[in-house]
Amino acid sequence: MTHLILLRHGQSEWNEKNLFTGWMNPGLTADGEREAVTAGRTLAEHGLLPSVAYTSLLRRTISTASLLLAAMNRDWIPVRRSWRLNGQHYGALQGMDKDQAIARFGERQIRLWRRSFDNAPPPAPDSMQRDLFGDPRYAMLPPDVRPRAESLREVTQRLLPYWYDVIVPDLLAHGSVLVVAHGNTLRALVKYLDGIPDEKVGELEIPNGIPLVYELDEDLRASGGCYLTAS
Fold first, then answer.
1. Which of 90, 118, 86 is closest to 105 using CA atoms?
2. CATH code for 2-227?
3. How far apart are CA 99 and CA 19, in angstroms?
4. Mean pLDDT for the chain overall
5. Among 39, 69, 73, 85, which residue has the fewest nearby CB atoms (within 10 Å)?
Protein backbone atom coordinates (compact mmCIF):
# COMPACT_ATOMS: atom_id res chain seq x y z
CA MET A 1 0.00 0.00 0.00
CA THR A 2 1.02 3.59 -0.71
CA HIS A 3 0.42 6.17 2.03
CA LEU A 4 -0.59 9.77 1.45
CA ILE A 5 -0.34 11.83 4.65
CA LEU A 6 -2.22 15.13 4.67
CA LEU A 7 -1.82 17.74 7.39
CA ARG A 8 -3.27 21.19 7.83
CA HIS A 9 -0.65 23.46 9.37
CA GLY A 10 -0.70 24.11 13.11
CA GLN A 11 -2.60 27.05 14.54
CA SER A 12 -1.35 30.31 13.06
CA GLU A 13 -1.23 33.74 14.66
CA TRP A 14 -4.14 34.83 12.46
CA ASN A 15 -6.15 31.70 13.29
CA GLU A 16 -5.81 32.75 16.92
CA LYS A 17 -6.91 36.32 16.11
CA ASN A 18 -9.90 35.10 14.02
CA LEU A 19 -8.67 36.81 10.84
CA PHE A 20 -9.06 35.73 7.21
CA THR A 21 -5.60 34.65 6.13
CA GLY A 22 -5.51 33.28 2.57
CA TRP A 23 -2.16 34.13 0.97
CA MET A 24 -1.00 36.28 3.88
CA ASN A 25 2.01 35.00 5.79
CA PRO A 26 1.65 34.85 9.61
CA GLY A 27 3.69 32.41 11.63
CA LEU A 28 2.61 29.70 14.05
CA THR A 29 1.50 30.27 17.62
CA ALA A 30 3.11 28.31 20.43
CA ASP A 31 0.07 26.00 20.29
CA GLY A 32 0.60 25.58 16.55
CA GLU A 33 4.21 24.58 17.11
CA ARG A 34 3.13 22.01 19.70
CA GLU A 35 0.53 20.65 17.25
CA ALA A 36 3.24 20.15 14.63
CA VAL A 37 5.53 18.29 17.04
CA THR A 38 2.66 16.11 18.27
CA ALA A 39 1.70 15.25 14.68
CA GLY A 40 5.26 14.15 13.97
CA ARG A 41 5.41 11.95 17.04
CA THR A 42 2.00 10.47 16.23
CA LEU A 43 3.07 9.53 12.71
CA ALA A 44 6.27 7.96 14.06
CA GLU A 45 4.27 5.92 16.61
CA HIS A 46 2.20 4.52 13.73
CA GLY A 47 5.29 3.76 11.64
CA LEU A 48 4.26 6.24 8.94
CA LEU A 49 7.59 7.65 7.78
CA PRO A 50 7.35 9.83 4.65
CA SER A 51 10.15 9.83 2.09
CA VAL A 52 9.19 13.19 0.54
CA ALA A 53 7.29 16.18 1.93
CA TYR A 54 5.48 19.11 0.33
CA THR A 55 4.47 22.53 1.61
CA SER A 56 3.06 25.75 0.23
CA LEU A 57 5.22 28.88 0.02
CA LEU A 58 3.75 30.21 3.25
CA ARG A 59 5.54 30.26 6.61
CA ARG A 60 2.90 28.39 8.59
CA THR A 61 3.20 25.25 6.44
CA ILE A 62 6.99 25.51 6.14
CA SER A 63 7.36 25.78 9.92
CA THR A 64 4.85 22.99 10.57
CA ALA A 65 6.66 20.60 8.24
CA SER A 66 10.06 21.47 9.73
CA LEU A 67 8.91 20.86 13.31
CA LEU A 68 6.99 17.69 12.38
CA LEU A 69 9.87 16.12 10.49
CA ALA A 70 12.37 16.96 13.23
CA ALA A 71 10.07 15.33 15.81
CA MET A 72 10.14 12.08 13.85
CA ASN A 73 13.83 12.30 12.89
CA ARG A 74 12.97 12.74 9.20
CA ASP A 75 14.18 16.32 8.76
CA TRP A 76 16.71 15.07 6.17
CA ILE A 77 14.12 14.06 3.54
CA PRO A 78 13.48 16.23 0.46
CA VAL A 79 10.88 18.98 0.92
CA ARG A 80 9.24 20.46 -2.18
CA ARG A 81 7.36 23.77 -2.07
CA SER A 82 4.83 25.24 -4.46
CA TRP A 83 2.42 28.17 -4.68
CA ARG A 84 -0.11 25.62 -5.95
CA LEU A 85 -0.40 24.37 -2.34
CA ASN A 86 -1.11 27.88 -0.98
CA GLY A 87 -4.39 28.42 0.80
CA GLN A 88 -7.48 29.84 -0.88
CA HIS A 89 -6.97 33.48 -1.86
CA TYR A 90 -9.63 35.31 0.14
CA GLY A 91 -9.42 38.50 -1.89
CA ALA A 92 -10.57 41.65 -0.10
CA LEU A 93 -11.39 39.60 3.02
CA GLN A 94 -7.71 38.87 3.75
CA GLY A 95 -6.73 40.44 7.06
CA MET A 96 -10.35 41.13 8.03
CA ASP A 97 -11.78 39.97 11.35
CA LYS A 98 -14.27 37.17 10.62
CA ASP A 99 -16.90 38.47 13.04
CA GLN A 100 -16.66 41.94 11.51
CA ALA A 101 -17.00 40.40 8.05
CA ILE A 102 -20.17 38.61 9.15
CA ALA A 103 -21.57 41.87 10.51
CA ARG A 104 -20.82 43.60 7.21
CA PHE A 105 -21.79 40.96 4.64
CA GLY A 106 -24.09 38.59 6.57
CA GLU A 107 -23.46 35.09 7.88
CA ARG A 108 -24.97 33.34 4.85
CA GLN A 109 -22.76 35.21 2.38
CA ILE A 110 -19.61 34.60 4.41
CA ARG A 111 -20.40 30.89 4.59
CA LEU A 112 -20.82 30.78 0.80
CA TRP A 113 -17.42 32.41 0.32
CA ARG A 114 -15.77 30.13 2.86
CA ARG A 115 -17.43 26.77 2.24
CA SER A 116 -19.17 26.57 -1.16
CA PHE A 117 -17.46 25.25 -4.28
CA ASP A 118 -18.18 28.05 -6.75
CA ASN A 119 -18.35 31.34 -4.82
CA ALA A 120 -15.26 33.55 -4.67
CA PRO A 121 -14.95 36.48 -2.22
CA PRO A 122 -14.68 40.07 -3.49
CA PRO A 123 -11.39 40.61 -5.36
CA ALA A 124 -8.37 42.03 -3.58
CA PRO A 125 -7.70 45.75 -4.13
CA ASP A 126 -4.73 46.83 -6.24
CA SER A 127 -2.69 47.85 -3.18
CA MET A 128 -3.01 44.38 -1.64
CA GLN A 129 -2.06 42.71 -4.92
CA ARG A 130 1.02 44.93 -5.32
CA ASP A 131 2.20 44.09 -1.81
CA LEU A 132 1.50 40.38 -2.21
CA PHE A 133 3.04 39.83 -5.62
CA GLY A 134 5.95 42.15 -4.94
CA ASP A 135 7.17 39.33 -2.70
CA PRO A 136 10.18 37.55 -4.31
CA ARG A 137 8.63 34.12 -3.72
CA TYR A 138 6.10 34.97 -6.48
CA ALA A 139 8.52 36.74 -8.83
CA MET A 140 8.34 33.93 -11.41
CA LEU A 141 4.55 33.56 -11.24
CA PRO A 142 2.99 34.81 -14.52
CA PRO A 143 0.49 37.66 -14.08
CA ASP A 144 -2.32 35.63 -15.66
CA VAL A 145 -2.23 33.02 -12.86
CA ARG A 146 -1.99 35.47 -9.96
CA PRO A 147 -5.40 35.28 -8.28
CA ARG A 148 -7.27 38.29 -6.91
CA ALA A 149 -9.71 35.96 -5.11
CA GLU A 150 -10.56 32.27 -5.47
CA SER A 151 -13.47 29.91 -5.13
CA LEU A 152 -12.77 26.34 -4.05
CA ARG A 153 -13.24 25.32 -7.69
CA GLU A 154 -10.39 27.63 -8.69
CA VAL A 155 -8.22 26.27 -5.87
CA THR A 156 -8.89 22.78 -7.24
CA GLN A 157 -7.99 23.84 -10.78
CA ARG A 158 -4.54 25.08 -9.77
CA LEU A 159 -3.93 22.24 -7.28
CA LEU A 160 -4.70 19.17 -9.40
CA PRO A 161 -1.94 19.74 -12.01
CA TYR A 162 0.57 19.68 -9.14
CA TRP A 163 -1.06 16.53 -7.78
CA TYR A 164 -0.78 14.72 -11.11
CA ASP A 165 2.58 16.07 -12.26
CA VAL A 166 4.57 16.10 -9.01
CA ILE A 167 2.92 14.33 -6.06
CA VAL A 168 1.65 11.25 -7.91
CA PRO A 169 5.07 10.42 -9.43
CA ASP A 170 6.62 10.69 -5.96
CA LEU A 171 3.91 8.44 -4.53
CA LEU A 172 4.71 5.86 -7.19
CA ALA A 173 8.46 6.16 -6.63
CA HIS A 174 8.60 6.42 -2.84
CA GLY A 175 5.39 4.93 -1.44
CA SER A 176 4.81 7.41 1.39
CA VAL A 177 4.58 11.19 1.10
CA LEU A 178 3.51 14.06 3.36
CA VAL A 179 1.57 17.12 2.22
CA VAL A 180 1.43 20.02 4.69
CA ALA A 181 -0.98 22.61 3.35
CA HIS A 182 -4.01 24.75 4.24
CA GLY A 183 -7.61 24.03 5.14
CA ASN A 184 -9.15 24.81 1.76
CA THR A 185 -6.29 23.38 -0.29
CA LEU A 186 -6.74 20.12 1.56
CA ARG A 187 -10.53 20.34 1.24
CA ALA A 188 -10.03 20.52 -2.53
CA LEU A 189 -7.76 17.46 -2.53
CA VAL A 190 -9.97 15.44 -0.15
CA LYS A 191 -13.01 16.32 -2.26
CA TYR A 192 -11.19 14.89 -5.28
CA LEU A 193 -9.90 11.76 -3.49
CA ASP A 194 -13.24 10.95 -1.86
CA GLY A 195 -15.44 11.96 -4.81
CA ILE A 196 -17.45 14.41 -2.70
CA PRO A 197 -20.19 16.16 -4.74
CA ASP A 198 -19.93 19.94 -5.19
CA GLU A 199 -23.05 20.54 -3.13
CA LYS A 200 -21.71 18.48 -0.18
CA VAL A 201 -18.25 20.01 0.14
CA GLY A 202 -19.53 22.71 2.51
CA GLU A 203 -19.83 20.03 5.19
CA LEU A 204 -16.13 19.14 4.95
CA GLU A 205 -13.83 20.54 7.64
CA ILE A 206 -10.09 19.89 7.98
CA PRO A 207 -8.79 20.45 11.54
CA ASN A 208 -5.40 21.99 12.30
CA GLY A 209 -2.52 19.73 13.18
CA ILE A 210 -4.16 16.26 12.97
CA PRO A 211 -2.72 13.88 10.34
CA LEU A 212 -5.18 12.50 7.79
CA VAL A 213 -3.84 9.32 6.21
CA TYR A 214 -4.99 7.68 2.98
CA GLU A 215 -4.02 4.21 1.84
CA LEU A 216 -3.83 4.06 -1.94
CA ASP A 217 -3.81 0.88 -4.02
CA GLU A 218 -1.50 0.23 -6.99
CA ASP A 219 -3.80 2.33 -9.19
CA LEU A 220 -3.71 5.12 -6.56
CA ARG A 221 -7.36 4.66 -5.70
CA ALA A 222 -8.06 5.90 -2.17
CA SER A 223 -9.72 3.62 0.36
CA GLY A 224 -10.85 6.50 2.57
CA GLY A 225 -8.88 8.72 4.91
CA CYS A 226 -8.33 8.15 8.62
CA TYR A 227 -7.37 10.79 11.19
CA LEU A 228 -4.60 9.76 13.59
CA THR A 229 -4.46 10.89 17.19
CA ALA A 230 -1.66 10.55 19.72
CA SER A 231 -1.79 7.45 21.91
1. 90
2. 3.40.50.1240
3. 9
4. 96
5. 73
